[in-house]
Amino acid sequence: MLSRIAESLFWIGRYLERADGTARILDVQLRLLLEDPWLDEDASCRALLSVMGHPVDAARVDPVDGREMLELLAQSDAPSSIVSSLAAARENARRAREVVSTEMWESLNTTRNEVVAGRWRSRSPYRLFAWVRDRVAVVTGIVDATMSRDQAWHFLVLGRYLERADMTARLIAAQDARGGSGAGWPLVLRSCGAFEAFLRTYGAAASEDRAAEFLLLDRLFPRSVVHALLEADACLAQLSTDEAYSAARLVGRDDARRLLGRARTELEYRPLAEVYADLGTHMDRVQRVCSAASDAVAQRFFPGGKATAWVREHS
Amino acid sequence: MYRPDGTPRSGYTSLHQSLARLTGEELRTRVETLARTYVDQGVTFDLGGEERPFPLDVVPRIITAAEWGVVERGVAQRVKALEAFLADAYGARASVAAGVIPLRLLLSSAHFHRAAAGIEPANGVRVHVAGIDLVRDSEGEFRVLEDNVRVPSGVSYVLENRNSVSQVLPEAFSAEPIRPVGEYPFRLLNALRAAAPEGRSDPTVVVLTPGIFNSAYFEHALLARTMGVELVEGSDLLCHDGSLFMRTTRGERRVDVVYRRIDDEFLDPVTFRADSVLGCPGLLTAARAGRVTLANAVGNGVADDKLVYTYVPDLIRYFLGEEPILPNVDTWRLEEPDVREQVLDRLDELVVKPVDGSGGKGIVIGPDASHAELDELRSRLVADPRGWIAQPVVALSTVPTVIDDHLAPRHVDLRPFAVNSGEEVWVLPGGLTRVALPEGQLVVNSSQGGGSKDTWVLGDRDAPPTMPMRAPRTAHAQPMAEPDVNPDDSRGHQQQQQQQINPGRSEC
Lengths: 315, 508
Hints:
The structure holds two protein chains of two kinds.
Chain A: H1 3-35, H2 41-51, H3 66-75, H4 82-95, H5 102-116, H6 125-146, H7 151-178, H8 184-191, H9 195-202, H10 208-217, H11 225-239, H12 255-268, H13 272-277, H14 279-301
Helix pairs in contact in A: 1-3, 1-4, 1-6, 1-7, 1-8, 2-7, 4-5, 5-6, 7-11, 7-14, 11-12, 12-14
Chain B: H1 13-20, H2 24-41, E1 44-47, E2 50-53, E3 56-63, H3 65-89, H4 94-97, H5 103-107, E4 129-136, E5 142-148, H6 155-168, H7 170-175, H8 184-194, E6 205-208, H9 217-227, E7 230-232, E8 237-240, E9 243-248, E10 251-255, E11 257-260, H10 264-267, H11 283-288, E12 293-295, H12 306-309, H13 312-320, E13 332-333, H14 337-345, E14 350-354, E15 364-365, H15 371-383, E16 388-392, E17 398-403, E18 406-415, E19 417-420, E20 425-427, E21 432-436, E22 450-457, H16 487-501
Parallel strand pairs in B: 3-22, 6-7, 6-11, 11-12
Antiparallel strand pairs in B: 1-2, 4-5, 4-19, 8-9, 9-10, 13-16, 14-15, 14-16, 17-18, 18-21, 19-20, 21-22
Helix pairs in contact in B: 3-13
């Protein structure tokens, strides 16, 4: 398939997952601001913005409140906001319109039309978040139910899981940076639908490092960092099968797989206490690796992304 | 909510401001959203075989930190006294010997079960969960209306109400430090684990439900889910070799603690009702052998018998050597002949309740009753004076409630929940506020058209609760990178621009 099309599919996967992940992260933060009266609003909003890649200038004196944070991360034109991500997913689908099923296209298109109309500004943010999760679930469902399991599908799913590892890492880092009473962990679990799964595995008496462990390391829970890294790796393995140097022999020849595999083993085989003691740094590393793996995928599969520039020949 | 002069009472000031800012239209939208939340989430109770959403009013009820301090200490005191009384009633009966309570009263209680004698709770706890119903009289003082130490229900609505109201009325939340209620399942699970038979390092806890047709099934499922334990029905259990097991896909698994939400009479057909299909044969034998703990314990009903209730202040003095913190509602014992005569003369101005009822069943409110009803009641009282008590009509406090787009005062009560882990009696900050929706109605039970309110216990912003706090780690935080974007996205713009410069191109 065309590199350009593959690239679009990869980014549809990433943008959709980003909208979903950002909605979940914001949901936790806003609920905590309501439910934990002892949480410092200014400090926790700054911490979250920093985790999301929008650090507030440390010299700024006036406090940052939930409203400002919500505006920036959900509704602004900033490239990674929820609204921008949904719009970008749709733009990428438009570029790959010929391989995207009509059902999927329409679903992406109506989603984007709703957010661009700006109707959400006046409504409750919780309903926005729930709606975003629903829409992403619908598109994901259509993708899984209608797309052939060919290269196109693998690129899209690769994007989804790379972004999921990134987003779950930020979710964990956000909870770690927020501090507070530890009452946040149940909400964090709830926000990614993991609460029941977690309780059934560990019981309600489990401590907060168990919650971090679950979201980081559980191989069976589909939103955990390790699960996402495993799935991304599986997609890359599928995409490499027709190569001369078969993935079945030399995993390390594939930069993206090497990066992801190393990050995953770093997490899985390091004592949890070490990871937990410095969650922020470890999550930052996961995030960087996802970004680097994304670059490696682009270099290998989507070459020639740079516009050609003509240079006059010297006579 | 208001003082006599019309200004908001302490604690209600900022809620009042938030509500005052809402127009009637906005209020209606909020109310509709709230109603839809409960339908969507399936927060229902079963009434006559029909699932109905439990009506939740959007205006919360607020209790200040000082008021709550009294309730908290009073409820904990009461639970401790009832624990001591139960241990005594099924044990040495020192309180009977001391003349605090008549033996006849114990033995004649419908919920005194001989089968409970000899079942020694592992950590001494019989009342793992209690719901103490309180009302606020015309003087503003909280009084105990009744004790529930068998299977008190309603805590799921406390948890769900908070979730829903925080989404619908967020602006009021941010103004006040409201003590969170979410730790209830953790506290309950800890108490249940602490009650496990000795020597079980990692006890298996289950919630035993009568099944989906029970009116409180939603609550059973919620508690099992939030504690992360199995929700079992009687048919999932079996007893052999003196122990209790549940049937799983990986074979039989031993059960150590049963948080049972079915009545004593249905627990074990071998001991109680032989026709019960809800329980498990042999359960009581296993409990007596100390192989499994039942929570709450069998036979607790004797402590919430409404005639025993009249002795609770004396029991507090006798067992704890303290004065009761929360007074009872004045109550007449009909077994004393001259008291009975007085009551019979004034039936039309009193409330008469059966001693073993719950859920508002069988209550006759004198001022509302017809002559025929009163005559019938009179003959029943004379025939069975042990079975009834009489109380004055308490002028319950009111809280504003949304009725057809505007706020109107409606009567409320309060059921705080206490969890006894054996080491401490913890009282959930809040509790279930039930509200009688028909105007002037004094019975607040959900089976009688009652709704509920979220109950806010105000905290002290400067004195956070006991949970360990960790400062935000902003210092270490190297900001993370902003998420990547597809470099191709911007090339699209270039393309677009060039196409617009040369519009003819697209037609080639």
